């Protein structure tokens, strides 16, 4: 049935995914196994295909929607059985920038990989990122930018994190069409990813999560 979940995810059949998750729960399969061997594994396959240009943004979004349908059923059972998320990620589009399509896809892929994601939206100032990090604990703060004019706010956010001593508590990730590995290194971000699938790999790498 795990194979079936992966297939239903790939074709974006939300009702099919939901039904299979319910069936597996009725058969007393552990929620953690359903998450890892069904949903996360299915989204990993989509991510790999996206990287090879075998599927494109619309397919990824449809698969992510189907994954959410499965997660809605599974989440209360995961919580009851004490399964912890892979990590907590705060994501937002930086100040001056209203583009959110890519950021939303990255957020969906993070969720599909078992991370808990808090999305602080668009046009997020350095101060707002810092305030969110002071309120709650996160493992990673992930910033998206689509404009060359908003990229400097990634740098400013990192500087403010550092001056508040938060850089020792949280990893930082940057991405978005104009952002490069070189830029990420220059501003001292912990990681960079060029697309949603690589963002998942990078987040796992930053938190030392190994998937076999
Ligand atoms: Co705007 N826009 N836009 N726009 N817009 C671009 C980005 C632009 C390249 C178009 C162009 O001129 N060719 C250009 C930027 C030029 C530059 O600075 N280099 C541009 C401009 C100039 C503007 C305005 C200034 C236009 C104006 O008003 N004169 C204005 C700015 C508004 C603002 O933000 N303050 C503006 C406005 C808008 C709309 C509101 C109309 C709309 C946004 C709607 C929305 O997001 N809700 C819009 C759109 C749609 C685009 C284009 C057409 C598409 C962007 C997109 O959604 N791509 C874009 C041109 C283009 O890219 N062809 C353009 C699809 C998305 C899935 O890809 O966001 O790259 P992307 O995300 C990818 C990766 O980048 C990566 O993963 C995602 C999935 O694989 N990724 C990350 C993203 N974030 C990541 C974070 C990570 C890791 C990976 O880690 C944290």
Query: What about the largest sheet?
Result: 5 strands, parallel
Annotated CATH homologous superfamily of the largest domain? Cobalamin-binding domain
* Uncertain segments: none
Fill in the CATH topology of the largest domain.
Rossmann fold
Give a brief rundown of this model.
With 212 residues, the chain is α/β, with parallel strands linked by helices.
Structural write-up:
With 212 residues, this protein is of the alpha/beta class. Helix 3 (31-51) runs antiparallel to helix 4 (57-80). The chain contains nine helices and five strands. It has a five-stranded parallel sheet, sandwiched between helices. The protein has two domains: 2-80, Methionine synthase domain (Methyltransferase, Methionine Synthase (B12-binding Domains), Chain A, domain 1, Orthogonal Bundle), CATH 1.10.1240; 88-207, 3-Layer(aba) Sandwich (Rossmann fold), CATH 3.40.50. It has helices at residues 2-10, 14-26, 31-51, 57-80, 101-112, 126-135, 152-163, 181-187, 196-206; strands at 88-93, 116-119, 140-144, 171-175, 191-193. It binds CO-5-methoxybenzimidazolylcobamide. CO-5-methoxybenzimidazolylcobamide (B1M) binds next to helix 5, strand 3, strand 4 and helix 9.
Offer a few descriptive terms.
2 domains, binds CO-5-methoxybenzimidazolylcobamide, Rossmann fold, Methyltransferase, Methionine Synthase (B12-binding Domains), Chain A, domain 1, alpha/beta, about 210 residues, globular, five-stranded parallel sheet
